[in-house]
Design brief:
Length: 132
């Protein structure tokens, strides 16, 4: 069962690249969640974790480049949100690969909660600037 489902009403920003990348991100997160909570081999969970985090880093960099190009006024706060999540994810990734942490239901819910807040509050706020 999907952890999080992208809908235009809840998560749509009306910024083409962002909406497309968010949908891919959700698919990758759901795959990780299914593997981790479904008893998949640790190597499969680790590979999906690495894939998801790599994608998120690239997506955040893309958003940040676009915000800078359009001189988005809330860039600094938005980038700080990105950096906070990347820090949490990088810590989990390091601990997971060292055998010191697992990808759990709680981890999935934490990331879902972050996305449930970040996209509607922070990402939708850049729509006018990025579409100008």
């Amino acid at each position: 069962m999907a952890l999080i489902t992208w809908t235009a009403e809840q998560f749509g920003t009306n910024v083409g690249f962002a909406d497309e990348e968010h949908q891919i991100l959700f698919d990758k997160l759901n795959k990780l969640y299914d593997l981790a909570t479904g008893g998949a081999d640790r190597s499969a969970v680790g590979a999906q974790l690495d894939d998801l985090i790599s994608y998120v880093v690239g997506h955040f960099a893309h958003e940040e480049r676009e915000m800078l190009a359009k001189d988005f006024s809330n860039y600094t706060a938005h980038k700080a949100e990105h950096e906070a999540l990347i820090g949490i994810c990088a810590g989990l990734q390091t601990k997971f690969h060292a055998g010191e942490a697992e990808v759990t239901e709680e981890v999935g819910q934490m990331v879902k909660g972050w996305l449930d807040n970040h996209i509607p509050v922070f990402d939708k706020a850049y729509a006018d600037a990025l579409n100008s």
